[in-house]
Amino acid sequence: MRTSLKVDWDIAGSGIVLRSITGDQFMRSNNVLDGDATSSTLPGGPPALTTAQHIIERPITQEFNLLSPTTGPLQWVAGTFYLRDTRVVSLDIASQAIPQSILINEYLILQTAAAFGQVSYQISPSWQIQAGIRYTHDWNEVPNGSDRSVILGVPGVPPIVSGLSGIETDSSTTGKVALNWTLNDTNFLYAFVAKGAKAGGFNAAGTASPQTNFAPEEVWDYELGWKSEMFDRHLSTSVGGFWNNYTDLQVAALSPLTGQSSLVNTGKSVIKGAELEFHAHLAGFAADFGGAYVNSRLGALNLVNTEALPPGTNEPQCAGGALPPACFDYSPYTLRLSGSQNPYSPEWTFNAGAQYTIPLGSGTLTPRLNYSYVGAQWTTLFELPSTDYLRSFVLWNATLTYQRGNWRAQIYGMNLTNKLYITGQTGAGSNPDNEFLGNPRQYGFKISRSF
């Protein structure tokens, strides 16, 4: 359930507006996940692994804005923002192996408070400068009472219980400076520098290991671009480039201290690229094209090679003379990685479409053909060709649309060549991992009316 309330007040008719935006959501999720894609009755195969999830979440937000009049060369906005997000999470990870079950009961409180301001000044009819700043303070807390119980399933061995409580607080100052140049009615150029931040957090402690915290992620973003309209506005184009310098980029990894999935920071990382887009139309004909190139190289870090771990391994690192099955030695599986590609970030992506609108009676009939290309990509930082590599794929889609007034009827065909392709993995980097197949060839009919 989602509710929101927006209230504007023009202060004494001055044109200065005080705005309040309130949001309240309540979400409940109950599901069971098959962690290894095997039957629980499959003899001699990998151990059955299922996860039952029960999650309740309620985020509440409040924002106040003070906005300047919309006339004149100087415009500004100042405001505050507050978020309180509470989550109750219950997980039951069941297996036929050891450990037999892991029970997690967790209560999370996430809070964010921020103050911000932005000004825009029209230097001349052609030039505009913008500057903004934001201060943010984040709290990430799991109070006492949250815990993890590891049930080994070994006769006479009691459950191993560890607390999940912890806290992380961070503050950051971010901002943006932009310069816009309206060259003429059909050409617009822009450039900006911006700093962004993502709050840090903590990985809960294990029975014999301390809480580990991960640092806030920061990025400096440099972008420039050009938007234009040509040939009597029959062709519009947009081209842009970006360069992102990351510090302490957060990535998911297995923590040997706890044997659980955690967040860690990498070294300095760079993600850069360019985008091109155009739209053309002439009489009833229209076409569009988009393309993007992204090059990502992540910084150095040590990671446990979860691809090589025995299935179902989730015990903490053996220490102080402890022996399996209550613990596991991850040392032989630890790798030093540097320069890996950002997971699920293909270097090249393209899309194109063409259509022709034909007058038909009191309506129009429009056939359209779409093409899309998604380049090869890696699903983990390990970049193992046998398990982590997703091949590039091409999809063709088509529609035939009849429009008459407020009514619209459409016949569609998706993945016309019935391409078999993989869109992602669940438990990527684990042993084993599951893969998601894209939708096969589909045909359908839709009818709608706008009001």
Average pLDDT score: 89
Q: What percent of the residues sit in helical stretches (DSSP H or I)? A: under 10%
Percentage beta strand: over 45%
Weakly predicted, low-confidence segments? none
Oligomer: single chain
**CATH topology assignment of the largest domain:** Maltoporin, Chain A
The largest pleated sheet is described as: 21 strands, antiparallel
Rg value? 27 Å
Work out the number of β strands.
Answer: 31
Measured between the Cα atoms of the first and last residue, the distance is 24 Å
Under CATH at level 1, the class of the largest domain stands as Mainly Beta
Which of globular, elongated, flat, extended, rod-shaped describes the shape?
A: globular
CATH architecture of the largest domain: Beta Barrel
What would you give as the CATH superfamily of the largest domain? TonB-dependent receptor, beta-barrel domain
